[in-house]
Design goal:
There is one protein chain. The chain is an alpha+beta fold. Among the domains are: 21-64 and 207-222 and 233-400, no CATH class; 610-670, no CATH class. Helix content is 51%, strand content 14%. It has helices at residues 10-27, 30-49, 51-64, 70-79, 88-104, 124-143, 150-189, 192-205, 273-278, 287-296, 309-315, 340-346, 403-406, 408-428, 478-496, 515-554, 570-590, 594-614, 620-623, 627-645, 648-658; strands spanning 112-116, 209-227, 230-246, 251-253, 265-272, 328-339, 359-367, 370-376, 386-389, 432-435, 469-472, 564-568. The strands form four sheets. A five-stranded antiparallel sheet has the order 4-5-6-7-8. The longest helix is centred in the N-terminal third of the chain and has 40 residues, at 150-189. The protein is extended and about 145 Å long.
Length: 670
């Protein structure tokens, strides 16, 4: 079939086979085992150092899903009674996630922008060119008999210099704008917002959330072709930069790491055979090494079973994951330094690692004893592909505190209150019965209690008047337990800085019952969330900076290139927009009267309405006309008004003389 047969010359076939032979010999070289052993030692250190954190993470995950620890559940069952688990932590987590997402991903707003670096001075080369140009012009003027003073030459030099500086800065702004548009398109294509929301969920639930990128993925693409009047799909492949959420369970930093760029780190990948095939052709990966791995683990897969794997799978809803393990091949991605001698012996070009006694930052993929990729880190500042943030950071530690960590004790107390409340309600729902069984006649059913029952009893052999059947009503403790529960529920709000009215609780007291009072409280509450938003800003700055660097190095379009700084606008402005929108709505209502409209005019009213509509996810141009249409509509409205008062001829003359009329209602704007 035409198009499915690959044409190659004999020389190309020979070169391909020779390359495969060399790579195969390299894989079987003892040096490969040495490099693999070096990476493996670091992996064992990272794995052991993370065991305590993994226990915490499993506890965090169970708390999020409202599940007791196995030991605690066993104790409750031994005691008996209710096993109720109150979803306090889960509710607070969902409220915080929703608040963060509302702030960071507002409709029509990017949570970042690019600002070009201001050029304070021209380069010496450019100043020299200006001096040469002015000198030439001065010589020509003097030859023509025109006298030019040194002050005039200096003034002309400064004038040209200022004009060129302004133009250069203007060009820098244009390029930054184009780069911003390019990055925005790239982030949309790779579904960055979806990945970041997943990372935010990790940050709230676990000791850290990890975002990775840009990573080149060999993704399938779909296009449509028309032939013979029919459309048919055309599937291809394209290398595209992506940002990915990395599960905290799969990220292993160095034992003494204080940040994502400190020491080394590992990421554990669970790959299917199809995933490995997709890596062929991606820069840095060895096709021969990948084939070797696929052949080596053809029948059994390779799974690096860790003690917490099954518990993690249960938490993530994959209870029967082990049934599919034959198709899974685990790989370890290493980011850190490796001695140059090992890299050179492995086969890396010695010109890339000239100092044999130094260590170089690399990205290395390792499966079993096979290294399928080992390349130098291209970042000039040796930054890694990962960015790690926590809900509450701890100094000198890559792992912080999650919402689950902060609420652990409170969650235990409210669970105890809820269990006690349910148990007490169960006991107090009916009377406790005390029966002298020796005073009941034969066949009387002791446990059968119902309304209007007649108890048959014998007289007391001791001659007392004590009844044979007594009823005791246990004291209901619901009021006390509910007050304790409410106290700790409110305490959780204070610990997190997320008051209940943020989640939509309308049962408020005091200042929160009024719109202005609630606005003031929201402003105060936002101070607590700003700290968390600043951590999310870290993800945004990392994303845009790394994508900007990728575009500067990898793309050929010079029209978008230039030095720029990333401004994450989460903390700076987006938090304030919640309150700003409330104030804007209040201002629109206050100024909607004839007196104020006579001052601001319909043009000012139009600008206010456009700003208010932007935050409502409504196409502004569909509601508010542009300037030309606005003027025409105003003229038509004024003409209709004049026609009702004076003859048409005089009305047209008055309209032309008055220019732009004014009105007093929003209806005239639409």
């Amino acid at each position: 079939m035409v198009g499915l047969v690959r044409n190659a010359t004999n020389q190309q076939i020979h070169n391909s086979k020779e390359k495969q032979r060399e790579e195969s010999e390299q894989l079987n070289n003892p040096v490969i085992t040495s490099l693999s052993a070096h990476v493996k030692r670091k992996w064992e250190a990272s794995r052991q150092a993370k065991e305590r954190i993994e226990k915490r993470m499993l506890k965090n995950g169970r708390q999020r899903q409202s599940k007791y620890e196995p030991e605690k559940l066993a104790d409750i069952r031994e005691f008996g009674g209710s096993e109720i688990y109150m979803q306090l932590t889960n509710f607070k987590m969902r409220t915080i996630e929703a608040w963060i997402n509302d702030i960071m991903f507002q409709s029509g707003e990017k949570p970042w922008t690019l600002k070009p670096t201001t050029i304070p001075e021209l380069s010496p080369e450019l100043e020299k060119q200006i001096e040469g140009f002015i000198t030439q012009q001065a010589d020509e003027a003097m030859n023509a008999g025109i006298e030019i003073s040194s002050d005039g030459i200096k003034s002309k030099f400064e004038e040209i210099k200022n004009v060129m500086s302004a133009r250069i800065n203007e060009i820098a702004k244009e390029r930054a704008g184009k780069m911003e548009d390019k990055i925005e398109d790239q982030l949309i294509d790779c579904k960055w917002e979806h990945e970041l929301k997943a990372v935010i969920k990790d940050m709230v639930t676990y000791p850290a959330g990890i975002l990775k990128g840009p990573v080149l993925l060999n993704k399938k693409t779909l296009a449509w072709e028309q032939a013979g009047g029919k459309w048919s799909p055309k599937v291809g492949r394209e290398l595209q930069p992506h940002y990915l959420r990395v599960s905290p369970f799969d990220y292993y930093p160095a034992p003494n790491a204080r940040g994502q760029n400190d020491g080394y780190s590992f990421e554990r990948h669970s790959l299917r055979r199809s995933n490995l095939n997709d890596m062929k052709g991606v820069a840095g990966f060895s096709d021969t090494a990948i084939d070797e791995v696929l052949e080596m683990y053809r029948n059994g897969g390779l799974h690096l079973w860790l003690w917490r794997d099954q518990e993690r799978a249960n938490l993530e809803g994959r209870d029967n994951e082990w049934l599919d393990s034959d198709d899974i091949i685990d790989a370890l991605e290493f980011n850190g330094t490796i001695p140059a001698s090992l890299l050179i012996d492995w086969g890396m070009d010695e010109s890339k690692v000239p100092d044999r006694n130094a260590e170089y930052m690399v990205n290395c993929w390792w499966i079993g004893n096979v290294v399928i990729k080992c390349v130098l880190n291209e970042d000039p500042l040796d930054r890694r592909l990962y960015h790690v943030e926590s809900f509450e950071k701890l100094p000198s530690s890559i792992w912080g505190l999650s919402v689950a960590d902060i609420l652990e004790d409170i969650q235990s107390v409210v669970n105890a209150c809820a269990r006690s409340l349910v148990n007490n309600m169960s006991i107090a729902s009916g009377p406790q019965v005390e029966v002298h069984v020796d005073r009941l006649p034969q066949g009387e059913e002791v446990s059968d209690v119902y309304p209007l029952k007649v108890w048959q009893t014998k007289s007391d052999p001791n001659g007392t008047n004590n009844p044979a059947v007594r009823f005791h009503n246990p004291n209901p403790m619901a009021d006390v337990l509910l007050r304790v529960y409410e106290f700790y529920d409110n305490l959780a709000d204070q610990y997190l800085g997320v008051p209940s009215y943020v989640s939509g609780d309308s049962n408020q007291k005091g200042a929160a019952k009024t719109a202005s009072g609630l606005s003031m409280l929201m402003t105060a509450a936002s101070r607590g969330i700003k700290q968390v938003i600043s951590h999310v800003d870290g993800y945004i700055e990392f994303t845009v900076e790394s994508m900007h660097y990728y575009n500067m190095v990898k793309l050929d379009d010079d029209s978008i290139k230039g030095d720029a700084k990333v401004l994450a606008r989460g903390t700076a402005s987006l938090v304030a927009k919640e309150q700003q929108q409330i104030r804007r709505q209040e201002f629109l209502g206050i100024t909607n009267n004839e007196a104020d409209l006579s001052i601001i005019g319909m043009e000012g009213r139009k600008k206010l309405l456009r700003e208010a509509i932007k935050s409502l996810d409504i196409p502004v141009d569909d509601i508010i006309p542009d300037d030309n249409n606005f003027v025409n509509k105003m003229k038509q409205a004024a003409m209709m008004e004049l026609e009702q008062q004076i003859p048409p001829e005089q009305g047209a003359q008055a309209l032309d003389a008055a220019g732009q009329p004014t009105g007093g209602a929003d209806a005239a704007l639409f």
